[in-house]
Amino acid sequence: MIRIEHLKKEYPNVTPLKDVSVEIRDGDVISVIGPSGTGKSTLLRCINQLEKPTSGRIWIDDIEITDRRCDINKVRQRMGMVFQAFNLFGHKTVIENIMMAPMDLLGKPKQEAYDTGMRLLRTVGLAEKALSYPDELSGGQKQRIAIARTLAMDPEVILLDEPTSALDPTMVGEVQAVIRDLATTGKTLMIVTHEMAFARAICNRVFYMDEGGIYEDGAPEQIFDHPRRENTRRFVRRLKVLELDIESRDYDFLGMASRIEVYCNKNQIAPKLANHVQLAFEEVMRVLLPQLETPRVQAVAEYSEAAETAEWLIRYPGKSLDIPGAEDQLALTVLQGMTEIVDHTCDDGAPLPNLLRLRVRR
Ligand SMILES: Nc1ncnc2c1ncn2[C@@H]1O[C@H](COP(=O)(O)OP(=O)(O)OP(=O)(O)O)[C@@H](O)[C@H]1O
Ligand SMILES: [Mg+2]
């Protein structure tokens, strides 16, 4: 168990952690979320003693790790950290990276460190890369190696700080799969991640950080579906929707397509529905933009997991238009095949008065 009491961390210009008290039970799998700068990394770094707290105390079981007399290396053996930027040694092979700490810090014999390393490489699917150098691997592979290296110390607690946020979207899944397995082993995990569907799938607890501490602490269903406090509600809502602003007829449609793809992946939207979300957006833009005097559109996508549908809310200026328009047979056919218009309203007071609501089906 980790017990934190009145933890405070002050930097010269900011105090990200004002007064944090919390208990983390053995086997808890916790996702840490919150706006940038709210101290998520600082909290993990204080727990791992990479940062010295300004005040407050932290215990692991009955050892107070904030006590000056505490042997921090012993504590670190029980606790591993995985960083966004992998931090592998470039001049060592993959297997050497993994064998190093168990040999140097735990005094493991070479053969044993090698056997454990190879076993771990097999569990992360990378045994064939044992003799490669980190530079020869993709980002997703490097992160899986970094996780294997952490596991080689057999820690009870693993802290992961945005382990997938530096990765190309195509590589997020393979790293998440490794962490997903890890979450079933009974180890205590704390993961800073904004991948909501992933957090829901593996966590029993979510910390929402804001205003100098853990602002709301609850089960994923509470935090993601029924947040109790205002800031949590606002933040979670932003996680669930995708907002696209278009300000030109020559908008970057590939850039938008990739943001829609990332959004669909994050929410684990089924491929067919994701494809329709993409197509519906492109089709509406193709019909709408040429008709607008001022080409300004705001499009918001929102996925409903329960209904397995997604909605596009599309706001545009000027007078209300007939969309898709009876004369555009292609758009009509495409859109009718996968969407229905929920409503199309006009609020003259709004900067973008027209609101078209489309429900996208599988
Ligand atoms: N070593 C440092 N020296 C001074 N200020 C720091 C230091 N590390 C972090 N900070 C400041 O403390 C605050 C919290 O930083 P922290 O990295 O913990 O936030 P975070 O929640 O992890 O944000 P992000 O989501 O951007 O990673 C920020 O304002 C940051 O600028
Ligand atoms: Mg951070």
Highest CATH level, the class of the largest domain: Alpha Beta
Bound molecules: adenosine-5'-triphosphate, magnesium ion
Helix/strand order, N-terminal first: EEEHEEHEHHHEHEHEEHHEHHEEHEE
The assigned CATH architecture of the largest domain is 3-Layer(aba) Sandwich
Class from helix and strand fractions: alpha/beta
Query: What is the total tally of β strands?
Result: 15
Please sum up the structure shown.
By secondary structure, the chain is an alpha/beta fold. The chain contains 12 helices and 15 strands. The strands form 3 sheets. Strands 6-7-8-3-9-10 form a 6-stranded mixed beta sheet, sandwiched between helices. A 5-stranded antiparallel beta sheet has the order 11-12-13-15-14.
